[in-house]
Amino acid sequence: MEAIVIGAGQAGLAMSRCLTRRGVGHVVLERGRVGQRWRRERWDSFTLLSPNWQTRLPEREYTGADPDGFMTGREVAAMLADYAAHTGADLREGVTVRAVDPDPAGWRVTTDHGELTARAVVVATGDLDRPAVPALAAGVPAGITQLHTRDYRRPDALPPGGVLVVGSGPSGQQIAGELARAGRTVHLAVGRHKCLPRRYRGHDTYWWMDRMGTLVRTRASLPDPSATRTPNAVLTGGTRDLDLHRLVADGVVPHGRLVDVRAGVARFDDGLPAMVAEAEDNAVRFRAKVDGFVARTGLEVPPEPARLPRPAPWARDADGELDLAGIGTVVWATGFRRDFSWVHAPVLDAAGEPVHERGVTAAEGLYFLGLKWLHRRSSSFLDGVGADAAYLADLLADHRVARGRAHTGARCPSPTAPVTAA
């Protein structure tokens, strides 16, 4: 076998399609069903942050009746299942990979259904792997239900009582807002985050990022590589902005960053005013970038008055402690971590993160795909993973041709024309 692709989300399926177009034989292994995380690890009201028109994979883009709408998690899962069926992938669902090891044939993949070997392996398990829950969760009283955003579904599925949501990224703020609108008493522990307007000067923010080339900016172009580790911008599907000002108006009680849970009391730092100011500054800078782009290009769009930073007296007055006696649930909106300990090759750094260049590791025939900032800002997005998949598929096809020439001494025909992402 020439290649094994691990994972059947957007990354694995995009890789499969690109390999098929280049005539590279392969299988795709998926621990659950196609689009497993979209199907089983999103809350009921979840939607994409990007509009439907930006749902683009190799040889597939959105053609429905609502290009400016936002797909739900279930709709994304259905779209990926349909994509897999029409791309003709050799897909093996319900197969859990236990280990990837070097082998005389290239690589040996051990699964709960046996072993497979191939010249190349593409790890396409995505960027959202395992819930990251801080150690201080151990201090939460035993009678309080704890769950990660991966396991949250809807307000009425939670036990009675107030809810403490820890984390203020898009997931944390969306869930906090939904719970407050459902009549729950909601407290939000706020960490670093970035605000963006949902729309500006007549267009969606993703329209502007697409037009300005923001999403295809490469990792190598960043003056500071640490910029890839900045928080995700807070948005929600629809036309309304999502930020702490809106949540406070909806009844959410904000606090600073959670720093300790002890003796039934949660304690927060005093950094909330600075967090709010930093988040607001991101939105101000984004609008300024759009204004500059419009001025340079002469684009005809409606004007919009400048928006000054909004006062946030509630941030200054936020309580530093919360008695958890009235809390029935803690929702950890604290993100995910990646675990590649099952990849037995010297390609991980001290933190367990893959060391690669555009997904290519120092171990011949071992690749990664679908990671945040793998090459571009959009590398982990539905709209961006296809370009990275095409790049890696070209490399695999070129290696196959080179090996064929070495064995036969003949000139091999070039592979099928490459697929490029829209």
From TrEMBL:
InterPro entries with a match to the protein in the record: Auxin_biosynth/cation_transpt (IPR050982), FAD/NAD-bd_sf (IPR036188)
Keyword vocabulary terms for this entry: Oxidoreductase
The name this protein goes by in its record: NAD(P)/FAD-dependent oxidoreductase
Domain of life: Bacteria
TM helices/strands, residue ranges: none
Entry-linked Pfam families: Pyr_redox_3 (PF13738)
Record bears the keyword Methyltransferase: no
Annotated coiled-coil segments of the chain: none
